[in-house]
Amino acid sequence: MFFEMAGKKTLCLASRGLLVEQNSEKYMEYGLPASIFADSLKKKSLRHNTVFGMPKTVWNAIERVKKENFGLVIVDEAHEVTPTLKNIIDKLREHNPALRLIGLSATPFRRGSGYIYESHYELGFMDECIDPYYKKCTFEISGKELLNRGYITRPIIGKTALRYETENLALKNGKFSEESIHQVFDGRGRLTAEIVKDVVETAAPYAGGVLFFCATIQHTQEVLESLPPGHAAMTVGDQKLQSKEDRRCVEKAFKEGKLRYLANVGTQTTGSDFKQCVVIALLRRSESVSLLMQMIGRGMRKYPGKEFFLVLDYADNMSTHFPSGDIFQPVIKAKKKGESEKIPAICPECNHENQFAMRPDMDNYVSNENGYATWPDTGDLVTNVEGDPIPMHLGRRCTGIVRRVERCGYYWTSKQCPECDHLNDISSRYCQKCKHELVNPNDKLALEGAKQGSIMSEPIATMEFLKFPDDLSKKDVVVHTALGKKIRVFVNTKNADKRELYRQLRDVIKAEPKDIPEGVYPVESNICIEFKKSTKNPRYNDFVGLSDAMPWS
Question: What pTM value is reported for the model?
Answer without folding.
Answer: 0.57
